[in-house]
Amino acid sequence: MREFAFELRLCAHLEASGVPSVGDAGIVARQLGMSVHAAGGRIVDAVCVLEGPEFDARTDLTSETIPPAVLDADVPVGEYERVTRVFDGPPERARTLAERGADTGFLDLDRRGGQTVVRQHARYPDWVGGLVGVENKPDLGRPGDLEAQLRHDASLADLDYAVLATESHVTRAHLNRFPDEIGVWRVDFDSNEPIDVVREPEPLDSAGSGLEVLDSEPGKTNVRPVAAAEKARQRRRVAERAYGKGWRTYDLPDCARIARGEEGDAAALPFCAYKDRLVDPASECGADCPGYEPADAPDADLDAERERNTPWNADAGGRRRQSGLDQF
Q: Where is the region Disordered (predicted)?
């Protein structure tokens, strides 16, 4: 199975059935950056955000990602403060960040004494119970940078658990090449129990410091220490991005050959009758495909499907605009 299709089906399964030996998935998202210092340096295929003690408060807060700069700022709860005192940088940047926070529904804006003021209308909740990262490699015969990616996850440890998921037969030689902390799943979507746990993941030291692998070459690996506080901020950013993004980040193409599934975890996955498999609409569909037949895209509300299958609330604060916001 191609990696994109494997990734979609695994995300759907984790959302419905939870993470083996760990717990309910809570929120599942695809393609999230875990690096702290190397922007875009490590993209994890799937991340499950486990439910923390105040998960319900997060689902009521906003349906969208709260911008990291908004969460990093010391915005008071309940009491208004001038945006220029809350956000660092020039006044225009401060107002822009405040407006972005208000657009999500997390902040309230007002005008008082000729100044723009801001507050949190609710305290940011303790909603994350843990992060589980899954690297998808259906074919271990084409590993790419797999070993380096898994070493990065184990060394940085801004995930609580890291797992490799594959369709290949996993040998002892494979296991010996991967860090001991990394769990391994063999996946067969035609089985009644699609995930066979070959090796349980061990808890990573997500609360402590870590080492981020920046780059490597023969005989040399460049790393950078990451403090516990830096990891905590990155974990919050990843969880927020996962909450706002989810894993249904594709559009069904405008082709008569595309049909959504009828049941189970394939309810709105892009299945192509011409290719007889799931396809990546962004790279495989369109006029260049010999099987392309122009038609309206299948009727599928991916937000509604996400809401039916997860605790995510599509109508929480991020879907409405604050009263009077348009005057800023």
A: 199-221, 285-328
